[in-house]
Amino acid sequence: MTRRDEQQQTSGFGEFTVVDVETSGLQPRRHRVLSVAALTLDSTGQVTREFHSLVDPGCDPGPVHVHGLTAEVLRGSPRFAQVHEQLSSMLDGRVLVAHNAVFDFGFLATEFQRAGGILPVQRRLCTLAFARRVGLPTPDYKLGTLADYYGVPQQKAHDALDDTRVLANVLRALVADAARLGIAPPLLTCTPDTDSPAQTAWVTERRGPKQSCVYAYPGRWEPDGPLRQGMKVAFTGETRVQREELVARAEAAGIDVTSMVSGRTSVLVTNAPDCGTSKAIKAIQHATPTVDETRFLELLATTEPGIPREGQHTKVPPRRRITRPAGRLAGRRVLVLGGTHDEATTSRTRIVELGGSAAVNLSASVTDLLLLAGGDTDRRVRKATELGLPVHGAELLEPTAPTAPESAPGRVEPSASEPTVLARGQVVDLPMEAESWTVRATWNQLGHAAVDLIAFLVDSAEKVAASGDFVFYNQPEAGGARLSEEGPTEQSITISLDDLPEHCTRVVFAAAIDAPGVTFGDVGAIEVDVATGLESGAVIRATLDAATVERTLLLAELYLRGETWRLRAVGQGYEFDLAALARKHGVEVE
After folding, report:
1. How far apart are CA 140 and CA 587, in angstroms?
2. What pLDDT is recorded for position 479?
3. N or C: lower Cβ tally within 10 Å for the chain?
């Protein structure tokens, strides 16, 4: 295991180039850029140069319903090799800024390689990670949502030129909010090495949480019969038409697309019924009818009308939450500063018991400061005081303490849709149905220790079946799990539930410190957010501490109980290193 380069955290508007690409798919090695735009900014954030071009990819343009770029529209446009030099001049020596930057960076690096060049970018800034670091009270972090929040007009979503113009305005607002909060932009050092983890760039399905069908469930599909609106359909395995395109067509026809197979599934669509995925296995167990992709598209074209559900007003299913008394800190987000490690850990636990959540960094979502002994020397105290945040001592956690005061004037109120907060050892059902889930770890932005997020895909014996079931920085993708890094103090692993190997009964998430002599006593608490995708807001949150001498920390476990996926907050630390933790889970380490 090798240590990655240290991340740089300085920035200036004069170094930023905002970019956006529209593509024929989600995988840089398989798909192509269809449209590219770039804007360079001066030291005040104003645009100094603008470039946009459609690109003839020489292949099928993919999901036209998303980007609107047909083969006819692209015909006659330059190839990427004809525009890459102009792009190079706008990127050389500057910070690449994009929304979900790993995606744009991966596609541009791959296209530059195909054109015989090298993407001249050494640092990038992801505005997704930036918005999360600022802590905006938005339901998600999609570009359109951030534009609405900041009052930035958006003319045409998924248009590269308009998206860069919108993003430049959002970036200016994020920089202003970050400066007010004393937060540094999360710049990430990167290299366009085609064998690096960055080149496995990908995104989760755009759908995020499952959309609730407006038609009543009519039962299973009968062979040789028609599809009816409201039928529950699942997909598994490789398809010729991109999965998101199939899902979009099905939902447009009134079909209820599900992420799991159960006894109520009407039909499973698969080109390989014996592919061995969890859905294929469940279909056999439940005797679920199956059809291939071609037959499904034929049936979809003649879908019969269904019966609308009565009182169907919303497309978002309600969340299932753990039962926890509404304490007097409900809705409060408290940043604990100072104290010994044990004192800080006890305080964070008590905050959760009182209905609040414990933050590890200052952001717009923090409502209160809890100062323990020595906490007044932390530089964030001055910034919090300037912001008018209420500052408390240990009396805040006493049984007879008054309810926390309201936020100071000018403070941004937390989102009305608060995540479920878990204490160590608590378990909760995943609160909505989704194709994939993202587990994100964040730690102290003022610290200097590097932390690695890892995952083990284990079987019933709590061991990996092979070394390929271990996800970490040198192996960022394995069996439906993929690692993403978009800031020096933030990493995430996204799990595609349908792509987990058949033997996997549990996914164990952990954090590890690689630097000699450094422990979690130096790092502090790790905040874990669980969301339905890279752009989604957290629906589950836990703040976990280890004792002072631990170098590895089990964060959470994701596992299936019956038909329901569950998440447990663990918080168990070990003094040994990542190699020993890997061996403990059955990984062969040289």
Report:
1. 36
2. 80
3. C
